[in-house]
Amino acid sequence: MFKNVKVGKSLIIGFGVTIIVSVAIIVVSLFVMNAQRAAYKNIIDSEVRANTLITSARLYANVSARNLRDVALFPDASDRQSKRDRAVEVIGFVDGYVTELDEIYSKNPSLDKNQLSVYENAYVAWRTEAMDIINVLDSGDYERARAMIQNSCTPLLNTLGDQAGVVNDYLDGEVERAVAGQERTMMLCIVALLIVMVIATV
């Protein structure tokens, strides 16, 4: 009889330990899942969003430049004013993107702020020239505007595009690095949980 009692206690202890370990594994798994979700959300809100902003800024800078070129080349066109206004409008869009980029970089100290600064300087140089061209166009000096577009605005736009490409490539690398880090963390957690399960069943 006493032998049966001892066996019963052993079974209860064994099942109890298994249940405790199982609950602990579930709790840890939920914690890891939440941490992974937060980490991926941070990647999306930071590196991925910044990359999207750089790409959009690059696109709209080209849209603005193209509209300015059309106004300078075809001053008598019926849509001259609308293209001029569109050029100004999209520069405003880019201003907003650059402001948001500053906010993202300020919240993420791991991002290369010097690289962003080089891009922003290139943008300011191009934007200043673009606004000067708009003023020249508004004055009616289309010949001078065409010369400014060819001699300064286009080279500055090319530089801006090059710097945008550099930042895009950097952010792509940061996304890959961050995702790889999260995958390694998940694998380590899975291995650790498996080891605990094996030990608990021995």
List the helices and strands and how they pair.
Blueprint: H1 2-73, H2 80-107, H3 113-139, H4 142-201
Helix pairs in contact: 1-2, 1-3, 1-4, 2-3, 3-4
Strand content: under 5%
Give start-end ranges of low-pLDDT stretches. Answer: none
**Mean pLDDT across all residues, rounded?**
85
Given the C-alpha coordinates, what overall shape results?
rod-shaped
Helix content: over 70%
Q: What is the count of β-strands? A: 0
Measured distance between first and last alpha carbons:
27 Å
Give me the Rg, rounded. Answer: 30 Å
State the order of secondary-structure elements, H for helix, E for strand: HHHH
Give the helix/strand class: mainly alpha
Number of helices: 4
- Biggest pleated-sheet summary: none
Summary?
The protein has 4 helices and no strands.
What does this structure look like?
The protein has 202 residues and is mainly α. The radius of gyration is 30 Å and the shape is rod-shaped. The chain starts with a helix and ends with a helix. It contains four helices and no strands. Helices cover 93% and strands 0% of the residues.
Provide the descriptors you would attach to this structure in a database record.
single chain; 202 residues; mainly alpha; 93% helix; 0% strand
